[in-house]
Design goal:
The protein is an alpha+beta fold. The protein folds into five domains: 253 residues, Up-down Bundle (Rhopdopsin 7-helix transmembrane proteins); 55 residues, Pdz3 Domain (Roll); 69 residues, no CATH class; 141 residues, Beta-Lactamase; 182 residues, Nucleotide cyclase, GGDEF domain (Alpha-Beta Plaits). Helix content is 60%, strand content 15%. The chain is built from 26 helices and 19 strands. β2 and β3 form a beta hairpin.
Length: 773
Amino acid sequence: MTSRFTLLVAGSAALLVVLFGLLLADVGKPFPGFFLTADYRIVPVDDAARATGLGFGDRVVAVAERSPSRLQETLRVSTGAVRYTIDRAGRSFTVELGSRPFTAADVLRHFTGYFIVSAILLAVGGLVFAQNPLARPNQNFLLYMCLWAVGNAFTAEGTLGITKYASFVLGVVAVLLSVHGWVFFLTYPVNPVRQEWLDRHRVISRLYAAAAVGGTCATLTFVVCRAVSPDRLAAVYPYALGVLVFLALVSFPIKVVALLDTRRRAASPLVNQQTTVLLLGIALGLGLWLALMLLPLVQAYEPRVDPQVGSAFVLLYPLAIAYATVRYRLFDTTVVIRRSVVYTALAGMIAASYALAIAVANMVLVHADVSRSPWFSALFMFGVALAFQPLRGRVQRLVDRTFFRERQDYVRTLQALARSMTSILDLDELTRRLTTTIESVMHAQNLRLLVGPAPPALAAVVATAQGAVSRYQVAADPRFAERAGQLLGAYTALSAEVVVPLRFQDELRGMLVLGPKLSDAAYTAEDLALLETLADQAAVAVANAEAHRQVVDYARELERSLLIRTNLAKFVPDRVRQLIEASPEKPSLEKRETDVTVVFADISGYTKLSARLAPAELDAIVERYFGAFLDEIVKHGGDVNETAGDGLMVIFHEGDHPRAAVGAAHGIHRRAAELNAGLPSGIEPLRMHIGINTGPATLGATKIEGRAGTRWTYTASGLTTNVAARLAAAAQGGEIVVSHSTFARLGSAIPADDLGERELKNVDHPVRLFPML
């Protein structure tokens, strides 16, 4: 990650160098003595230009009777003074002005300030980032400074430069700079409530997307106008500037409101100081930059000072942000100072109390010198011993509240975090809260929560010490003397300064690993004590979170299993599903001979229909019909064994299965007739031809093995199945043809014709056919 931001700084610096080099490349070109904006408005520079009557904001209408977009071309061929037609507030007049070569001194005089400011912006961003490369505010600040640096120089060259190289990308840079500024102040100082709202509504990603789209559109519009019709650019340019100025102006309330909201929610002296500094930076730095540089450059009004001065004032803005970011992150008053103040105050109070006690005793006991009495001294010291601890606690709180408010705030913050962790069940949320809170109050680098067993290199530390262990303790504690070198190497490999084991019910649940403080100050005993208190609650929270995650994973696996079962039920025959549910460990799927009725149903004219309809349309029709047929089959107790294009194979094997099969066949014809009524015109009605046969068949699972693996099918096989298929082929559209074995079981209640015995393909003996309508 650090290398990525290093490349960002290097790329920004390279852009500035290239842009300054392009400005120097303009040296020697004809220069009229004034700068001209993209919409041909004048910024007078030389005394000669002012002497002709040219004023700030005058618009050049023509140059030697030619378009002002051809200024450089006109100056190159001109040998004397050039006539300029000027418009000032609707009044037209002409001036004549000679030209001179553009010099390096002009570049240094009018542009160097912008580039120096940009270089300082990059340096400030890099220094703040180097203090803590992992902190999100530092990363955002560095990106902000890179955009400011590039935007500051690009604005000057794109507005005043002779060639205006930067104008092509100024729209993208300016929009991204404004939007990233909003994002920076919406997320810093940290405001958890607002951050949760921003994440939930994806506000930040949408802002960046809108900035990219808006900036790209502005740049494309500028490029197209510049290439196709430079004169049209003069009409578009003021609107583009208006948008950029609007974004700069609207940034004020967004940033101020965000800071005030954070200040209100945090109600912390530290945050109050941070937001005060940031508000001053916005008011002075950004305000003066806007008033003295941006608005004059866009011709809002004539500048009273060189716009480079306004560019320099912008440095107050990043310096305020840097101070608020770095100064208060490094703030860590030592325990020695705090204790010195506390015990000095206690000593003074005890001495004053002793003197007061002596004075009172001497007044009460006249002619007695109690100061010489050992009993008085012993009694006083006994009283001091009784009152010392409560008194020290009160003085400590008073000193902290008066002189070390940040320390008191961060102790309260860690205590509040410890209390809140017991209700956190999400391990990622627990990690985020722990790391962000400790980093913000102790200013620790490389803070991590490692869940699970300790790394082997640190196993000795974790096994020996019950609480937090710092690098100094490893080096100094005799318990680690034999393995000190190895353990210190492990600390270095982890970039660790302190390791805090998380134990729950004598079981190690993980470790907190803290790197060195940003201030390079040592972790005090009070710091380690606070971390140990926090670790006790964190261990319970980690155990709860892991148990919750196991429950969630089990629930997801159960949900997945139910989903698989539901989807497989669409493809597996009901009989197979019943057998598996009855005995999931060892379902009874072996083959056995049983009495069944097999139904084959095919669509009449399917081949002809498939040639006329598109595949998607044909599939939709077949699915609609077969879905209706499935309802009838299931209602009569049948199992769809397989489907193939235009055909169905259905098995009935329970109860009065011949009559159920015939009932399902009639239902199929009835549903087909109902659906035919809704077919579009031009599509012939679909008619089914159905064959039914009853008899013994082998019912069960068949294993098919091949190189691709083993597959199983559950079907009925044998002569009964083959005959049913031939009967379906012999039936006409809309007919049901049953075999003699099926008809005999139906009884005379169901009418049918008798076609006598017929030879069927691949059937050894004739079969007697009974067609039904």
